[in-house]
Amino acid sequence: LAVGVSLKAKVGDKLNGGDTVATICADSEQDAQRAIDIFNDAVKYSDHEVPVPPVIRAKVSDRKAAAVEGV
């Protein structure tokens, strides 16, 4: 599977019917459809406002990885 995905919306964005959420580029129709299926299985939509998760979930140093406080 060789595809590229460009996200046009992010968690917490308000969307209207017909809004583009992502653009998928693929070398074949088969790869494009598989990527669309995987994307649709991974994305959830809500009629209600959802909290935006933090961008940084953990930090990594040369000694260890540690969760960021409050995450």
Mean pLDDT: 86
Radius of gyration: 16 Å
End-to-end distance: 33 Å
Strand-residue fraction?
A: 15-25%
Number of helices: 1
Low-pLDDT runs: none
Task: Give the strand line-up of the largest sheet.
Answer: 1-2
Largest sheet: 2 strands, antiparallel
Run of helices and strands:
EEHEE
Looking at the chains present, what oligomeric state does this protein adopt?
Answer: single chain
Helix content: 10-25%
Structural class: alpha+beta
| Tally of strands | 4
CA-based shape: flat
Short description:
This protein is α+β, with helices and mostly antiparallel strands and 71 residues long. Helix content is 20%, strand content 23%.
How would you summarize the topology of this molecule?
Layout (H helix, E strand, L loop, with lengths): L2 E5 L14 E5 L2 H14 L15 E3 L4 E3 L4
Plain-language structure description:
The chain is of the alpha+beta class. It is 20% helix and 23% strand. The chain contains one helix and four strands. The chain has one helix at 29-42; strands at 3-7, 22-26, 58-60, 65-67. The strands form two sheets. The chain has a two-stranded antiparallel ribbon. The protein has a two-stranded antiparallel ribbon with strand order 3-4. The longest helix is centred in the middle third of the chain and has 14 residues, at 29-42. The radius of gyration is 16 Å and the shape is flat. The termini are far apart.
